[in-house]
Amino acid sequence: MSPHPTITPQPGILDISLYVSGKGRVDGVRNQVTKLSANENPYGPGPAARAAYADAAGGLAVYPETDHAGLRAAIGAAHGLDAARIICGVGSDEIIHFLCQCYAGPADEVLFTEHGFAMYRIAALAAGALPVEVAERDRHADVDALLTGCTDKTRLVFIANPNNPTGTMISAAEVERLAGGLPPQALLVLDGAYAEFVPGFDGHANLATSRDNVVMTRTFSKIYGLGGLRIGWGYGPSHVIDVLNRIRGPFNLSSSQLAVAEAAVAEQDYVEWCRAENTRLREWLAAELAGIGIPTDPSQANFILARFESAEQAQAADEALKARGLIVRYVANYKLPQCLRITIGDELACQAVAACLHEFMKGPG
Fold first, then answer.
1. What distances in angstroms separate CA 107 from CA 132, 234, 273, one per listed residue?
2. Which residues, listed in sequence order, are joined to residue 218 by a DSSP beta bridge?
3. Which one of 34, 142, 175, 184 has the fewest beta carbons within 10 angstroms of its own beta carbon?
4. Residue ranges of the domains in the chain?
5. pLDDT in tens, 134-162
6. What digits encode the pLDDT tens for the residues 24-38?
7. 47-267, what's its fold?
């Protein structure tokens, strides 16, 4: 569509490429499909969260609370955090947008890595800031490259740990080195969307507690199985959370979102079960693919990044999977044209992916 000659948006808006979500259907495939393209929990939310959603129907006429006190308290109790330093949003995406809106603008720079989450670029451009991409090292965030990429215009540095779409992590020591090396005007934003899939990992909450230049974001969309409700949260220094709350809409989360998330975060036994199942099946599927010549980096998330010999082979494998009703994510838009990101589904889904790719790699004959 051509832009209007006189009614124009703010600078940067028209440079945004629309976010493309994981597909949920396959043209020409009439049978039921298995969606492994969006890193959703194949088991869905736990029983308490499901019950809370049903109960919430009785309060639809009433405005939700504006301070999210109940949910913030529940998150704080589950993770050992100060509830006053927690902000809740419509997925962690909204927190990312808040950060860019509040701390970056024209003439400012927002850093992220070459295979980083697409929303970092989108949120930077939406704020009128310049997105700056730095190289990774073997599909891992490179702290030296990030520090070298910083200038006196850098206001935000985003990294996801584990990263999407690679599934890789860097060490806590490296993250701390990054936080300590940033210029004084910059915030480090640690995207912990997949933190719950790593046993014993706090998503770097300790850094966000101890440092005044670190913010952590988290989501209920992944291990909690609540992608359809869009609930996220952030945690960081009081001076940052106070600023973000000044632009947060007073009713950005509905009563049902708040009630379900509060119930979900209390179901840590269910979270542990989902984590264990994901780890078991992720390791099994990675080993199966390695055995047929499809390497993956060690993933710490709920997906693996399957690497093929070429973009053409990756696309052909994608077509073979789709023909079986198995929808994965071709990640050329993340500068990984030879790769497919495959969500870890349930046991039957993982077995189906392995069987299909085994047949694909054997070829005809």
1. 12, 26, 47
2. 233
3. 184
4. 13-44+269-362, 47-267
5. 999 999 999 999 999 999 999 999 999 99
6. 666 665 568 999 999
7. Aspartate Aminotransferase; domain 2 (3.40.640)
